[in-house]
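Purpose: get a first structural picture of the assembly so the mutagenesis plan has something to point at.
Setup: three entries, given in the order below. No constraints added.
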Amino acid sequence: MNFQFVLDNLAALTVTGLTQGSIYALVALGYTLVYGVLRLINFAHSEVFMIGTFTTTIIWAALGFGVGAAAPSTLGVLGLILAAVLAAGAASGATALVVERVAYRPLRKRNAPPLIFLISAIGASVALMEAAGAITNRQPRGMPSLVFPKVQFSIFGADVTNLQLGIIFSALLMWVGLDTFINRSRLGRGVRAVAQNPEVAALMGVNKDRVIMLIFILGGAMAGAASVLYDVKVGLTTYSVGFLIGIKAFTAAVLGGIGNLRGALLGGLLLGVVENYGAGVFGNQWMDVVAFLVLVVVLLFRPNGLLGESLGRARA
Amino acid sequence: MNALLESARRADERRAKAAIGIRDRWSSLPRPWRIAVLIAFIALLYSLPGLDIPLITTPDTDFTSVLFLCAVYVLVAVGLNVVIGLAGLLDLGYIGFYAVGAYTVAILGSPNSPVVVKYPWIVCVPIAIAVAMLSGVILGWPTLRLRGDYLAIVTLGFGEIIRVFALNSDITNGNRGINAVPTPSEADWPSWMTWFPTIHEGRPVFSVSSVIGFYWLALTVVIICMLGVRRLERSRVGRSWLAIREDEEAAELMGVPTFKYKLWAFAIGAALGGLSGALFFSKQTFINAQGFDLFTSILWVAAVVIGGAGNQLGVAVGAILLAYLPERFREFTDYRLLIFGVALIVMTIFRPQGLLPSRRRTVELEDRAKEAPVA
Amino acid sequence: MVGLLVGAAACAKDDDGGDTTSASSCDSKIAFFGALTGGNAQLGINIRDGAKLAVDEYNKANANCKVTLVEKDSAGDPAQASGLATSVVQDAKILGTVGPAFSGESKVANPILSKEGVVIITPSATNPALSKQGDKTFHRALGNDASQGPGAALYMKNVMKVQKTYVIDDASEYGKGLADQVKTTLAAGVIGSGVVKEQQTDFGTLVQEINKSGADSIFWGGYLREAAPFLKQFREAGGKAKFVAGDGVKDPKFVEGAGATAAEGAILTCPCVPPEKAGGTFAADYKTATGHEASTYSAEAFDAANILLQGIKAGNTTREKLETFVDGYTGEGVTTKFKFQADGDIDPSAVAVWAYTVKGGQIVALERTPTS
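Result (structure tokens, whole complex):
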């Protein structure tokens, strides 16, 4: 148990944690939206993320940035990232929608109990993952380095690189966009209405099916954006990448308060930081265990998460 | 496309009706007949390794080993059925209990384990069951008050924690593993048994090259446990589980101590899981962290649900499919998970009560479907 | 149908195949045992192809008395290995195996195979403990990790002249074993160590730690699945330390995953001979037969199969006789000169640990590692 290491490198671990946590936060948004409205843990969301990572490599290769290519200029980098976000967001959103149509909607029509929904979600997740595995022959897919981390400044003794800043800012930007949409726009009001009470919302003229389609697309798009950030950071993807990220992201969503968009952001960032502290104290190999233990402890003492559930309330 | 679905649905309805017809005819048979049929069936199961049924025997790998695997998986399914099917708690980390049971036997019994004790197999197994039960209680105590969905995630986390622990701690020797896991006693086959094909007098009962002894042991344990769980199902405990499953708040109001019975379900499920782990690795003789990944846990849940949660025969069918099909059709092993994933989706839509459903469950689901709001 | 039943019953009764003399010695079989499917299939396929080349050549030269190669696909999974091993011992015609390929499945399968006298020659399972388990018919056609580890460390110390090494392992028994060996040999030269998780993809913290420690070299005990993203992220972050790893990383996929620029100059050790330096026409024959270059352990598998085949040709068509033959075998294969010790390991003088490097996106052989 190496507490000294953590104390010495507190700032560095925090920065790394915030970066990692930004990715968790974006993926968590998808979980929290779906759960807030449908009370369903969308297990397949992790595969939605995975598909986004592969889409990014494909679109980059199509644009000439394939294996062995050199990193382009700053403008080129931004262009590639934007293209990837659009493509991955669309692909992930589409995947999420397909899952909803094929796996969840028939169950909704039959008023199936929550256990059955969960089983179907697991089935969808496994099916998507294995299909990707079969297609890629279970081999990881590398991609050339897009951004080379360069230290921009130092805060409290921690070096902060441009890569880290970029990831944290992009995540915050996406989150602000989503939050504004849910809270200010008409469609967003519909989402909150259905989260609060589906039958009354239907009576008030909200098209429930369309709202559900919307949340799946939005959640998927956020996961797609996260996948681009992940690809830039890690540079490698494989068919099973979604699993662990998905679990962590769901933990983050629960941690912050499921159904609560702010909670997803807070939960994600917090989880990333705590995880890294834990890795520093106990060693890298126990990092995931730390995440799960955090989840259990939070659920024991605050079952509604840190910020409480609130997609359905007037203040999201 | 719709016409195809309709005809598939009608075919399935006919099959379901036929199954119910068989069931009614079965209940109307007089008791002695039923017992006779059961005994004949069990005798058939015991003699499967000796018969060499052409289509069923696995060409590439040893058939008796596959039978043993089926028996172990059925035991897992019976235990998981107690948790999911009877008590209605979704446990996604069942493999944790399996691992605890297996490692306890290995650590206490193997001369090569990091702990310097060597107990005989017959002592290790009850200890393994007890330790697994304890771990079930430890897991259940803080988490059973949580909502169903959260419980699923937490149990998933538990399964992972056990695996990471097995991988990284010294007592389990990580991926190096522990070999020479103890096997049941060193008895030899007596001469009066040699009429059965593949049995030789004077060769060890529990050997690695002729695994009939293991298969029969597992089969016996499975039958005993199934009978035991059946008794439990019909007792007060079973009725409480039913009440908890259908409506927990109402059950609590009616005076059922829900938490206590949920904990019992967890503990019994954990005990059965630990026992199956102990059995399997007694044959395998080598254990390492590689065998305990989360997907096996999820596959087990799938097998229970597809087979028919709540119905012991149903989950047994699900488990046998899970164990047998990949070994029989080894060319498709790579696609095994994919097929099960798709099967899960299809089953939940068309037949959520499972292949061999419990009658109560079918009625439950039909009632719910009737209540569906017109969307 | 009846014949099948009788035949199967007879076969099943025959599971002490060691002392039955078959009437004709011309239906012998040897088995390949390893992963042909699953994430690690490539190694198994290399081995199967090497063995197949040997068997095909033998059958061409001995057309009236052929040997069959049976393939047992374990997917590298110990759980499947046990059932497969049982089926091998129950087929009295299978006299020996090329494999099991991986150390994990060996631990399960070897006791089963050995107890019934099946001759085991593994071309790739390098875990030192395998020869100490008491499996009498076990043989290893290459050096084990106990020679690869020190070989790599000595190469680092004497040839690369490193001063400060950071040792990383992945908690697998192969990786940790190798890393431990390196740590022992480098002793005071190790300034830090770390453990990575299986399937880990994000190494930000580890990279930071290594950079802070000022290490001039890294030793990686593990597989390419984690090594590739690590090296990529390490170089991206400006890490300049030299990268050394074992045979679990030696594969073109490593260069692809890390990127040719990041992987450039990496040193990979392997107790396997570079196929192009293998004797005879092996490399060319392999390419003609399969259409691609021979890869890791193909040559070792070729040699292992040939030893078994030579034994069968000399008339040792029972398991016991073949075992005696292999125990006392001395001869020149394409990889090295073979002579087995009592515990099945190859004679130490025959062990060759080679160092390879990544140059221009390709893995090329450098030289043998020093032995002291």
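Residues 2-144+276-340 of chain C form a domain with the Rossmann fold fold (CATH 3.40.50.2300).
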